[in-house]
Design brief:
TIM Barrel, alpha/beta, 8 helices
Length: 231
Amino acid sequence: MLVSEIFYSVQGEGELTGVPSLFVRSSGCNLRCSWCDTKYASWKPEGETMTVEAIVEKALAVPARHAVLTGGEPMLAPEMPALAARLRQEGFHITIETAGTLPPEGIACDLASISPKLANSLPAEGEISPLWRERHEARRLAPEVLRDWVTHYPYQLKFVVEGAEDLAEIEALLASIGHPVIPSKVLLMPQGTDIGTLRGRNAALLDLCLRKGYRYCHRLHVELFGNRRGT
């Protein structure tokens, strides 16, 4: 498996915020989000080729038993099901951070952290090749795949939000899944990689959460460490 980085930190987003976790970041992604904060693993995949057993050995070296499989898009890695199965054997709680464009196909997972990409993720013209812009727009939403995830796994739906104008798209997407989604399982996270930008969007997101019963999603790692690798 091509691995961009493995590090031990606290979970910065979602229902398990603050939980010490071992992060395994695979390289490669089928999308090209304009605001992606891990372009080194997504836009231009890089890293070290590692066996499943080598990754598990690193996981066992930390005291926590929470593992986060992330990317890029971790579900692209052919070895990911084997890695998840081995981590499960070793007693790890497994979170998979995915865009929800690729089916789970029975992978071991205790929390599917699904981040469907809204229209605000489309790169501007000139930011990337026209072919990749078309691919991104065609691939970013797969309601039938989202339904597969939310009907078979504990889940959270985590949306990167720029403002109240994103609400209509979020609600249309939730309706398209074809499965009831509890409002508290919908997490709204401000788009931004610095404290000033994040706080500037807080008021709008808090208003949406209070009106709709959605959950506000903090980015604890940005507050604690800034926008840098290995955190």
